[in-house]
Amino acid sequence: MTDIGHWINGKLVPGTSGRFTEVFNPATGEVQARVALATVAELNAAVADAAKAQIKWAATNPQRRARVMMAFGALINANMEKLAEMVSREHGKTIPDARGDVQRGLEVIEVCMGAPALLKGEATDNAGPGIDIYSMRQALGVVAGITPFNFPAMIPLWKMGPALSSGNAMILKPSERTPSTSIFLAQLLQEAGLPDGVLQVVNGDKETVDAILDNDTIQAVGFVGSTPIAQYIYGRAAANGKRAQCFGGAKNHMIIMPDADLDKAADALVGAGYGAAGERCMAISVAVPVGEKTADRLIEKLLPRIEKLKVGPYTAGDDVDFGPVITAASRDRIKGLINSGVDQGAKLVVDGRNINIQGYENGFYVGPTLFDDVTTDMDIYKQEIFGPVLSVVRKGTYEEALNLVIDNEYGNGTAIFTADGDTARDFASRVNVGMVGINFPIPVPLSYYTFGGWKKSAFGDLNQYGPDAFRFYTKTKTVTARWFSGIKDGAALNFKALD
Ligand code: NAD
Q1: Which range of residues forms the domain containing residue 34?
Q2: Residue of the nearest CA to atom 42 in ligand 1?
Q3: CA-nearest residue, atom 16 of ligand 1
Q4: Which among 147, 319, 381, 427 would be 20 to 30 A from 227, CA to CA?
């Protein structure tokens, strides 16, 4: 059995806590490794070393730091297949999807190659007699990233890139379900020229996370995961005086208008609902057709597409559309929710509970599942299922469909499929959701925009990646400077406007 430790001061180190958790291969159900869970003392030691390394790193000129990002990007590209396999082995997603996971993280690193331009301050000359004012963005010091299981490459890269290229040191605590990719990325960063200690990958669970939240040296926490944990981490980090941005769960709706191209809408729903077994925070889990005729035709179009979906292990290559879910507990929870949907009166159109993959009977599989006639009081509507389950909530009018989205407690992503520009524009303007797609089911913004939900999908301020991330990981210092040539002597006692 492989033991996965931590990446500290540029070396792999075993954990000393004696506490481990199992890392599964979800495709087979086998335990493939144990990951060490760091103690408070291990975390604090890693932070202390990171603080020392950060001083020199912050003093390194920004262009040299950007060059590390350039070399890192090249290494990610060169190791794409190895990274994708690593992601699939611990997560279960297909290899093409895992390549996308790495690629969307790499795109953020590409923006970080231009970090010096994003880190510039502002300046005003002659703001008063002999007075110039200028501002600068300085690194915070040691910051932390705490990441979820579902994008083992992309989300750690979203955290590392902006934090490190801004001159911070980072403690990265990846998900204990998918720890290997973060350690390998840290090794690539070392090869790219990142000084030892600037990125510490500390594996762990709640005990480790609490140690991060209570450590006085850590200045900021960037979290991604489920809503209850996001809210908890935001509260505790803020109470301890840290800057925090905590991105949570989602329930993403797609409205399908009667004038939409229903073939395109059905294709989009199948991809966005079942891709990665529904384990994406931007997955569409609720389809909202407007009008009974639209709903009936949509279901007609969905059925053959769903029947064609192939579920299986990532090792089966192109023969598989999506893989298992992350753990046996997650599979059982999803099946329990499907049972509840049936009990609470939803119409189960496609049942994924009894899937059996030959040779992979112990893998954590759930087949594609489709519910019709779902109502807002049902658990399958209220909870984030995070599995391959699509619910159809029928609405009579556009206003009713829009209000359904507005009233939902989550606000990560949403989409509308329509041929009418006015409706699309109205939707984009009025909906209270952070990322909106128009005839585009998973509107994850490109790396030079920013990513973030509204309502219970995000706590704190500023989004992930793009310009917002550079604001989050730096603080502004403003300098007012006066030089005395030609200025009369005399003390100024009043607080007054500059001449
Ligand atoms: P999770 O909340 O269980 O875990 C996320 C991180 O928090 C992990 O590193 C984990 O070790 C840690 N953690 C778990 N329980 C904790 C506790 N009690 N105290 C302190 N730390 C704890 O999330 P997950 O299951 O790994 O990921 C899936 C969730 O992440 C879904 O809800 C999904 O929507 C969400 N997600 C959100 C975004 C986004 O940007 N909004 C992106 C991806 C995933």
Answers
A1: 2-248+457-479
A2: 281
A3: 206
A4: 427
